[in-house]
Amino acid sequence: xxxxxxxxxxxxxxxxxxxxxxxxxxxxxxxxxxxxxxxxxxxxxxxxxxxxxxxxxxxxxxxxxxxxxxxxxxxxxxxxxxxxxxxxxxxxxxxxxxxxxxxxxxxxxxxxxxxxxxxxxxxxxxxxxxxxxxxxxxxxxxxxxxxxxxxxxxxxxxxxxxxxxxxxxxxxxxxxxxxxxxxxxxxxxxxxxxxxxxxxxxxxxxxxxxxxxxxxxxxxxxxxxxxxxxxxxxxxxxxxxxxxxxxxxxxxxxxxxxxxxxxxxxxxxxxxxxxxxxxxxxxxxxxxxxxxxxxxxxxxxxxxxxxxxxxxxxxxxxxx
Length: 320
Hints:
mainly alpha; about 75% helix
């Protein structure tokens, strides 16, 4: 980290010194030198970012498009064969259905719980402590969170001591333990809980800042008019932060489209829980088929781009 900061400082200091040497702010051509230097200087700052984005973002996209028209080893041209395979592949349809299910549930639940948490923690004396506890899962990696929740969902045969928290609660009420993450369809919701648990803290922090930015005059006017706390929250506060809610919602949506770690660590796509990113990983590193993996990657990208563009536009509206 220290070396990185020092390298950035050295680059910007050295490039500016070089520019000032080439176009000094003195002499007969001072006006022309300043004009040229001011035109070049922004590119000194943008240059490294453009190079890095080109190397790690643009090139992989172009390469994925090319590979999607090639066979497993990325050498033999197969045309649209990978896309025809994708259209008829049952596992791909399962992944799409699960991703759509995640899209409906996770952003809505995480945003809702984040909004409720933001509103409630601002009304209690120990709100900062509560916010820290809610935000804490954000500091855990997706794999770490998956391991934690895998213990919560852990299953032991009936009659054995249950180390999984959920089955321990279930058996204490006299019911049979369940292998929760192996139950088709419903196991998707158990996996979603992990991401909701993580992203609620993110939504809470952003929405809490938005709530604090609401003018007090509107709230005082509503109180004078006899509005209840729920009416103030639902009809006064929420409409004023709707833009922020939409940005949080879409940010989590983009994350959901790329969800991978949780599914890999907990089920590896088994028992009907496959998602697009994990399916792409399977074909890339287990099936060793770069063509099919790239085709799936392009589907994920095509789903992310419209939401990302809309998200950026909404963020710009909020700034204005």
